[in-house]
């Protein structure tokens, strides 16, 4: 996460009177992440994460995110559990922002995932999709085609200040995806941002998943495509087919893909690359003065987009259907 909003000691002390969490020992801003303000909170009852929801998070979506974490934890997924206050509510306000406290998970995010960690995240993703079944609330993906169109309109005229020709490439890509996006595939609750920094591992195994603030209802295979983008490229930009095969096999061993899902993976991977290119580009062009945040490189996702546009088919990603 990042820190956009500061919380003073008095406001925090007052806020914590609403919970049974004991006395504050310390609170530190967390520099990682880009979306919300996050703090590591230590009290006499343990360690917690305090999140203040910022810009891209609509308040109307918060009951979905918080209810989803409650649902997934109850279904046995290792994810943060919202801490409910004395009045039973998990969501309240602090420093003028909606705020929640969640349980702290142990583990390390892999900086450069191993093949075995890729296999494990594939299995964990399928487990997340399974655990999400039966969740009563729904949320459409605000960052699917219609959302991309809005982001393109916001960024396209300034895109060439980041890379010559980027505006044209983005406009062409959006047009391609609008005419090739699958109409219907198996769908349900997806994480939609399962990057390495949102996964904790102990050794080769995934030990926990965090950051459900992009979760929504969309195609399961799109979530797999997001993971292939985030986990299977090396720091020099090279696609690692061994990691992709491990990730895909980890997923399909737990949840086999239909023929239509498997065939759609290349275009879904292309869409996922455009989605992260656009949000990164938007953040790059609209930096918040004074915020503790490290904007992410949009060009990394331009390069991934180019890779997917050349992919020969689902076998590029080690994918076979059931
Ligand atoms: N429940 C948690 N347990 C332990 N660490 C956490 C937890 N939630 C967040 N963090 C830490 O905060 C960082 C940012 O969290 P994240 O949810 O990814 O933020 P953002 O939504 O702003 O991107 C993580 O990389 C991790 O270090
Ligand atoms: N994963 C996205 C940015 C969202 O940040 P996160 O910290 O919530 O994962 C990206 O890499 O562009």
From TrEMBL:
InterPro entries: Aminoglycoside_PTrfase, Homoserine_kinase_II, Kinase-like_dom_sf, Pseudomonas-type_ThrB. Gene3D superfamilies: 3.90.1200.10, Phosphorylase Kinase, domain 1. It is an enzyme of class 2 (transferase). Keywords: Amino-acid biosynthesis, ATP-binding, Kinase, Nucleotide-binding, Threonine biosynthesis, Transferase. One of its GO terms (biological process) is threonine biosynthetic process. Its EC number is 2.7.1.39. It holds the Pfam family APH. It catalyses: L-homoserine + ATP = O-phospho-L-homoserine + ADP + H(+). GO terms for molecular function: ATP binding; homoserine kinase activity. Pathway: Amino-acid biosynthesis; L-threonine biosynthesis; L-threonine from L-aspartate: step 4/5. Residues 27-257 form the Aminoglycoside phosphotransferase domain. Belongs to the pseudomonas-type ThrB family. This is Homoserine kinase. It comes from Oleomonas cavernae.
């Amino acid at each position: 996460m990042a820190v956009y909003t500061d919380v003073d000691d008095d406001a925090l002390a007052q806020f914590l009177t609403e919970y049974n969490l004991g006395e504050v020992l310390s609170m530190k801003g967390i520099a990682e992440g880009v979306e919300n303000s996050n703090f590591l909170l230590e009290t006499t009852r343990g360690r917690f994460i305090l999140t203040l929801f910022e810009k891209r998070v609509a308040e109307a979506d918060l009951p979905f995110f918080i209810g989803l974490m409650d649902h997934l934890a109850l279904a046995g997924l290792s994810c943060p559990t919202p801490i409910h206050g004395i009045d039973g509510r998990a969501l309240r306000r602090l420093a003028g922002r909606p705020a929640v406290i969640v349980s702290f998970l142990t583990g390390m995010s892999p900086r450069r995932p191993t093949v075995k960690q890729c296999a494990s995240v594939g299995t964990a993703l399928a487990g997340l999709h399974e655990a999400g079944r039966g969740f009563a609330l729904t949320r459409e993906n605000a960052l699917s085609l219609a959302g991309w169109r809005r982001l393109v309109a916001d960024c396209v005229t300034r895109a060439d200040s980041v890379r010559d020709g980027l505006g044209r490439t983005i406009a062409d890509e959006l047009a391609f995806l609008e005419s090739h996006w699958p109409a219907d595939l198996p769908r349900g609750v997806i994480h939609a941002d399962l990057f390495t920094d949102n996964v904790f591992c102990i050794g080769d195994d995934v030990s926990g998943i965090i950051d459900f603030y992009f979760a929504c209802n969309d195609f399961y295979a799109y979530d797999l495509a997001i993971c292939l983008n985030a986990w299977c490229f090396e720091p020099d930009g090279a696609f690692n087919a061994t990691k992709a095969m491990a990730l895909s096999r980890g997923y399909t061993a737990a949840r086999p893909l239909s023929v239509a899902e498997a065939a759609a993976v290349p275009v879904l991977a292309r869409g996922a690359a455009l989605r992260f290119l656009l949000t990164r580009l938007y953040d790059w062009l609209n930096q918040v003065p004074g915020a503790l945040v490290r904007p992410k490189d949009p060009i990394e996702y331009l390069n991934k987009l180019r890779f997917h546009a050349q992919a020969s088919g689902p076998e590029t990603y080690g994918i076979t259907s059931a």
